[in-house]
Amino acid sequence: MGNQESRISSNYNIKNVIIENDYFSVLEAVSKRDSTETVSIFRYKNKLNLSEKQEETEDINATLFKNAVQRIKTIRHPGIVKFISADIYSESPAIVTANVIPLKLVLKSMTSENICTGIFNLLKTIEFLHQNCKLVYNNICLESIFVPKNNYTKWLIGEFQYSIPINATKNESQKIIDVIPSRLQPSKDEKEDNSFYRDYWLIGKLIKRIIEPYTKKKGKGTINWAPLQQIASQMQDTIPQNRKSVTEVINEPFFNNNIVIEVLESLRNYKIKNEDDKKQCLSILPGKLKLMSKDIIEKNILPEIIQKEIINESFSDILFVELFKDPLKGNTLIREECYKNKIIPYILDMMKLRQWGTRVVLLKLINSYYDAIIRYDTNNKNKEFIITEVLVGLEDMDSDIYLNSFSALTKILMKTKLKKNDNGIQIINDKTNDDIISNVGSRKNSAVNDKPQSATTEKADNSLLSVNVLINRFIIPHFIRMQISDDKEKKLESMKQVVKLWKHYILVEKVRFILF
């Protein structure tokens, strides 16, 4: 097989062939080093004999493969399949990428909104290739578009073998154009010269193919496909210069007036916004989400929201206060099953990051999500983890972390159901006070807490931490500490939370007195 080729078999276990294209076989494989890492392998379908030096007589297939590797390796864009590695000089060369699945295999299961946003993403990627890379892609078809398994709105391209720089010489470009399959050739009579017009035609053909089942359906759907059908026809004009460009299509009302695309574009451009624009984006987002169905939010919007970059802004609670709300207590954006499978794991994962902005948001909103997490916490591990993180915050030097941790602890106590042990003492199942303090360790400031803890000792879940201990050892000392400080905000907020806690227990005692 050759030394280079053996690297694929030595590093990955091939699971199955996903799709056979003109040039590549696309395989799914699992890393032998990490069984949780799944990748895609684009393997050339025939054997090649490549050399490091490009010779004048080099086989066209060798040229195409080197072209494919060079482009996917050097061009980085959210709409391009992520390159990992390549085996080039082997008998069966291959490219290893992030795990993707062919669009063709999942197209029928997509919603209309998935398709609209997917087409828009593809247009943006091709526009990037044209404007920034000066590259004609020449391979826009259903078989060469891929999606991540968890996000069908993100359409990706990755097979660059037919791509040609716009400034390539006539001979260079014609050499590749001559081997492009006829189904990817705009003109039946003669092959068009190298130009962006070729990609316009291919996009028009792809759009027509994708939306054809929807245009034939009787009755009104959620989307009027007629304008897009007309756009596709304009992109396929027989006169290349008359074809509607990618940029013109992107700015068409069909896409500009689509609220799902508007929200997705705003989220995807979030990183490059300044702080004021970020706040504006997050403040109007809940209102826009309420105009969408739960299905659209869960399948289209949620994957873009639950990223660590967004929640790390301390003001992002203006968005997450709605998203983290318990489905049984008024969350109208997503279904309970989605909350359980997506939101709860996301919250717990974000807590482990211990970044300042993220911690502030999660502490502020603990009242929203705590009940839901406990409801599905069959072994009390998540409850122990959350309480430990809150108590850690009471040892933090950062004022915001400290104050929000105190507030969060009072809210947890008000949500804790009291019960009696054999001695009649009010308790809750949790870790002992000494265990909690040992987990807190020496983490005294938020700068240290931005780094994950290396390891914590797990204790058996048979110890008890009484509510009285939480109040006497944590609430009362820290309340006194804040009341004697010069910080007016701490004084007022801590007083407000303690009064709420006090009223809560008075009410609990009244109910117990009436019942017993």
From TrEMBL:
SUPFAM superfamilies: Protein kinase-like (PK-like). GO terms for cellular component: cytoplasm. Residues 12-320 form the Protein kinase domain. It comes from the Eukaryota. InterPro entries: ARM-like, CIK-Related_Protein, Kinase-like_dom_sf, Prot_kinase_dom. This is Protein kinase domain-containing protein. PROSITE patterns: PROTEIN_KINASE_DOM. GO terms for biological process: tRNA export from nucleus. GO terms for molecular function: ATP binding; protein kinase activity.
